[in-house]
Amino acid sequence: MVKKNYKDIELSPKYKPKKTEEYMCPEQLAYFYQLLTTQKEEILRQSESTLNSVSSKTKESSSITGDDSDIASAEQETSFTLRMAERDKNLLLKIDQALERIENGTFGYSVISGDEIGINRMLARPLATMTIEEQEEHEKRQ
After folding, report:
1. Structural domain total, the chain
2. What is the pTM of this model?
3. 15 within some domain
């Protein structure tokens, strides 16, 4: 039997992975691949807009002639925008890592124990890399 490639599967828009399916079957992998790819594309679109915004705000701030409050407000807004861009960069990295795990067959399995993370957790948090128990233990140690 030839195994289906998750990248070639066209899913119904109503498709949701189910517990009754084989865990991380090609359809589930296709679902998460498409979900993560769509999220990545959206973040990249927003990032381009953010960079354009920061660039124009930087040009504007060099010509601000208002009082100290106006200047501080503009700088604070630029700082906030840059923090959001950094957050998006980190999220893109996690999405790329998840896509790599899909590619190498480890998506949906704990990076610590290799156990199944579980479909409900993956639906709630597609970037999860640990079971709930492992995540809780990890957070306690930090």
Report:
1. 2
2. 0.81
3. no
